[in-house]
Amino acid sequence: MNYSGLLNASLTLSDPKKVAVAYTTALDPDSVGSHFPSDFNLSEITARKMGQDVTLIDEHRAQLEKLLHRKLVLLHQVHSNTVIDLDQAGLDQEHTDADGMVTTRDDVALAIFTGDCTPLLFADTTHHVFAACHAGRRGVENGVMLETLKMMGEKGAEPTTTEIWIGPHICGDCYETGDEIATAFEAQFPGCSTLTRFSGRGIDMSAALLLELSLSPWREATVHSDDPAIGEQTEKLWASISPDYQRRLINPAVNPHGMQHAGCTLENPLLYSYREWTKSMRPECNGRFMNIIVPEPQL
Fold it and tell me: Rounded to two decimals, what is the model's pTM?
């Protein structure tokens, strides 16, 4: 599967004809001709707040839908554990406060915006149930992943046939939170607080999600980490842009040691990071990327 303009991570898939996952990047259209403009990586509500041209964003979204051969479904993410049944609620959910969505339809592409939080993409291709959710720290603490899996189960999914992709997010080595948050997180998820590379205490969201999963009825689900595939695709895309543009994307003040984890948003220069933007306030860092799951993709 090769969706032009996306950082494709479908190499982990057991059967790429049944489902595909992909992530957009922070590249602008002047760097690589096939990539989408940066305003494409903003929700409509965020774009309005930033004074962006919503009409232009709609046009760019239409380009992506044409590329995916699917309608793109989005949510207004609010760090909750609210999950939407798209089969009942319909597909127009971008103004609905929620952080998870589930469907049995194969004519849609489910997309989650992130810029440090953990995106989770789900598929039970045997029972034809698909889902996506946004798990920031509060979402992890509030159990948004298990709420999403619960709804998948209500629609026929089973643990042994369910696959879960943990998408790019800030890693435990980089997610510095301070003592109070780290202590509370450790109490809820033992072993999932960290000492970051910045020498302060932090948390590991993916470790917490894996722990929660291991203690749940969904422990037999297959979990994929897309780090290897993202690393491979990052190398290819990085080689395709000019040295000047590479220097624009690298921020030594925030990430002086380079990329150690390809799936970490703070370390990977092709992915948006909210924490990087708040530390640097560089305009080119301000955005989110889309994490997309596509049922029955057209190869």
Answer: 0.91
